[in-house]
Design goal:
The protein is an alpha/beta fold. It has two domains: about 140 residues, Nucleotidyltransferase, domain 5 (2-Layer Sandwich); about 200 residues, 2-Layer Sandwich (Nucleotidyltransferase, domain 5), CATH 3.30.420.40. It has 15 helices and 14 strands. About 40% of the residues are buried. The model has no long low-confidence stretch (mean pLDDT about 95). Bound molecules: adenosine monophosphate. Adenosine monophosphate binds next to helix 10 and helix 12.
Length: about 400
């Protein structure tokens, strides 16, 4: 069974064709600059890369080009679109209309349209791509939501302290994001922990990248997460402020003479590591600046480190204990320094990391970096969001 995974952005479209029998990626690629000058596709198959420049007015044009590459006689992987059993789409926000990955028919499409405003930059391109796929390929389409894994959060964790009737009418509450990543790494962790005789009931998953979020996963289900109604809440990130007193937002807007729209962009794009350090949103560049003696870069690092530790602490309390901490995402998978500073002096929680294992952890594979006598297993797990989308799509389609 072959499943095509599609992740549409406002001017981009990423795709992977996955053979579900062995869960291997057959080919993958990216379409860039859809609807603007310079549109092109980069298609990767069998270790080779093919680039085609072509004007693409919209997502339908882009998807047509993807299909041309997939079925191309020279570098294609299938002879006909009929070989694709289903298409799985990454959709950022489900609102309260969906609490799991869902087969998209006309009725579901209407519901999706009704929540598009909740993620105005992300949901509309996914919808455009879904519509193109539904009209161009005769196979089931499934929406897999970034918010989906967090739908199990109890009300006390997901509601904000606003009048309840306003929550009911507006649906404004915590939803959480990076759900496919938290789902993948928590499931991988549970497999590893149970196979090796370790407890796996209470896991804190730390997805640390350009965007960062932390989740509490109890009994395999998400019970809390750091991102909120939008991905701005929670930890300080590359360009996002993370948590801030809501009343300070109004003060900032007045101080900067900005409208609410402008201040939201400022908090999403000009803040975080970039804003605090004045150096970069990129974690590696931040670390280089620290090595060169930049104090504001060190401050941004310390804020990140401190906040991750606070979330781990609060989620340990929320779950009544801690069996495992998982690091993933570009920073979590590759940054041995942040793993080391986050887990430092946490022996009172049962956390002990093996320094050598941490520093020498091979990349691209799961590594248990805990010391032998650590009560809590500390794991580095490369995330695979596309595989979760493909697995969910297979599950939904198999039940049709
Ligand atoms: P992501 O959003 O998951 O792709 O992660 C991107 C972030 O990972 C950027 O801030 C990168 O600087 C960071 N990153 C990538 N490689 C490393 C590395 N070797 N050490 C520390 N951070 C890294």
């Amino acid at each position: 069974m072959k499943i095509l995974v599609v992740n549409a952005g406002s001017s981009s479209l990423k795709y992977q064709l996955i053979e579900m029998d062995n869960e291997e990626v057959i080919c993958k690629g990216t379409v860039e600059c859809i609807g603007i000058d310079g549109s092109k596709i980069t298609h990767k198959v069998n270790g080779k890369e093919y680039e085609i420049e072509k004007p693409l007015a919209n997502h339908t044009d882009a998807f047509n080009l993807v299909m041309e590459c997939l079925t191309n006689s020279k570098y294609g992987s299938i002879s006909s679109p009929k070989e694709i059993s289903a298409i799985g789409h990454r959709v950022v926000h489900s609102g309260e209309e969906f609490d799991r990955s869902t087969y998209i028919d006309e009725k579901a499409m209407k519901k999706l349209e009704s929540v598009a405003h909740l993620a105005p930059l992300h949901n509309p391109p996914s919808l455009a791509c879904l519509k193109s796929c539904m009209s161009l390929v005769d196979c089931p389409n499934v929406a897999v939501f970034d918010t989906g894994f967090h739908s199990t959060m109890p009300d006390m964790a997901k509601l904000y302290g606003i009048p309840y009737e306003d929550y009911q009418a507006s649906k404004i509450r915590k939803y959480g994001f990076h759900g496919t990543s938290h789902k993948f790494v928590s499931q991988e962790a549970i497999k590893y922990l149970s196979a090796n005789g370790y407890a796996s009931d209470k896991i804190v998953t730390c997805h640390l990248g350009n965007g960062s979020s932390i989740s509490a996963v109890k009994g395999g289900k998400c019970v809390d997460t750091s991102m909120g109604m939008t991905p701005l809440e929670g930890l300080i990130m590359g360009t996002r402020s993370g948590n801030i007193d809501p009343a300070a937002v109004e003060m900032l807007a007045k101080f900067k003479k900005m409208t609410m729209e402008e201040i939201t962009i400022y908090l999403n794009k000009k803040s975080g590591f970039l804003g605090v350090s004045g150096v970069s949103s990129d974690f590696r560049k931040l670390c280089e600046a620290i090595d060169a003696g930049n104090e504001r870069a060190k401050l941004a690092y310390d804020m990140f480190n401190y906040q991750i530790r606070k979330f781990i602490g609060s989620y340990t309390v929320a779950m009544g204990g801690l069996d495992s901490i998982v690091f993933t995402g570009g920073i979590g998978e590759n940054g041995s320094l942040i793993r080391s500073t986050v887990t430092k002096d946490l022996e009172f929680l049962g956390v002990k990391v093996d320094k050598e294992l941490n520093v020498n952890a091979p990349r691209g594979t799961m590594v248990d970096i805990s010391a032998k006598d650590s009560k809590v297993r500390v794991l580095v797990i490369p995330t695979n969001e596309e595989l979760v989308i493909a697995r969910d799509t297979k599950e939904v389609v198999s039940a049709l």
